[in-house]
Design goal:
This protein is an alpha/beta fold and 289 residues long. It is 48% helix and 15% strand. Strand 1, helix 2 and strand 2 form a beta-alpha-beta unit. Bound molecules: glyceraldehyde-3-phosphate and zinc ion (ZN).
């Protein structure tokens, strides 16, 4: 199937009153697991590459992006590519040629006025290239190895009035909101602020994005989709599944040296997790007709 765009998948999800799942990929096994897991669930999916993943790959976007494009083109479901948590303008500018239809520009670490100015410039550039752009307002914790559980700190949450101003002045296509989730959680124990989500959803005409979804319990996730989340970002849950499977396999086979055997167990564990999460999201929606 030809590569599709994140914008189209978000629009489709909105029509079905569900959310599109976006999974962070680091290795070829992640790519294969996300595509196979989504095919099993029968749903489109977003493959996303974070700036941190590019850093891990020696600063080169090309090899992982090309693998993702090829996997997307051979998939039996629509797949889009998204560049995630971009802080570097140099990386941002590589997106269109590398096959990405969308980017998340992350200037949320900056004070409001600076986040606004930087995001405005990124959005103007992205739109001139035909890219869909997401930005973040509020502090979704747990980035770059910082402690994950600061989601409830005073001032961390996205303020609805500020969000309205931010979206209107930047022209972004979607907004990542801080409503109680945090990145890199290894337990599903986050408590979302559903009342705040409803206010944000009522205030804003753009789709809202949930980051740090690995730490969100299934019921909370389904409720968040019903409450207006249109894109659900998942990373750590796949890494936890991969690592658990590898640890288990190598523990039982200490003599193993062929990576195909243990990587296969890790890839299957990630595939199952992808299918499971997409099914949780689809619980909230209506069937495609
Ligand atoms: O942008 C990526 C996501 O927010 C992933 O967060 O690794 O906690 O699931 P997670
Ligand atoms: Zn994130």
């Amino acid at each position: 199937m030809p590569l599709t765009t994140t914008g189209e998948l978000i629009a489709r999800a909105a029509r079905l009153r569900t959310a599109v799942a976006a999974f962070n990929i680091i290795t070829l096994e992640h790519i294969e697991a996300v595509v196979t897991g989504a095919e099993t669930a029968g749903a489109p999916v977003v493959l996303q590459v974070s700036q941190n993943a590019v850093k891990f790959r020696g600063g080169r976007l090309g090899p992982l992006a090309r693998a993702a494009v090829t996997a997307a083109e051979q998939a039996h479901i629509p797949v889009a590519l998204h560049l995630d948590h971009v802080q570097s303008d140099d990386l941002l500018r590589q997106a269109p040629d590398a096959g990405f239809s969308s980017v998340m520009y992350d200037a949320a670490r900056l004070p409001y006025a600076e986040n606004l100015t930087a995001t405005q410039a990124a959005a103007d550039w992205a739109h001139a290239q035909g890219l869909w752009i997401e930005a973040e307002l509020g502090q979704i914790g747990g980035k770059d190895g910082r402690p994950p559980l600061d989601a409830h700190a005073p001032g961390a949450r996205t303020d609805p009035a500020e969000a309205r101003d931010f979206v209107a002045r930047t022209g972004v296509d979607a907004l990542a909101v801080a409503i109680g989730s945090a990145h890199a959680m290894t337990t599903r124990t986050a408590a979302l602020d559903h009342a705040l989500l409803k206010r944000l959803s009522a205030e804003l005409a753009v789709p809202l994005v949930l980051h740090g979804s690995s730490g969100v319990p299934d019921d909370e996730l389904a409720e968040a989709v019903e409450g207006g989340i249109g894109k659900v970002n998942v990373g750590t849950a796949l890494n936890a599944a991969l690592t658990r499977a590898l640890r288990d396999h190598l523990g039982r086979h200490p003599e193993a040296v062929d990576p195909r055997a243990y990587l296969a167990t890790g890839r299957t564990a990630m595939t199952d997790e992808v299918t499971r999460i997409i099914r949780v999201l689809d619980r909230a929606g209506v069937s495609p007709s």
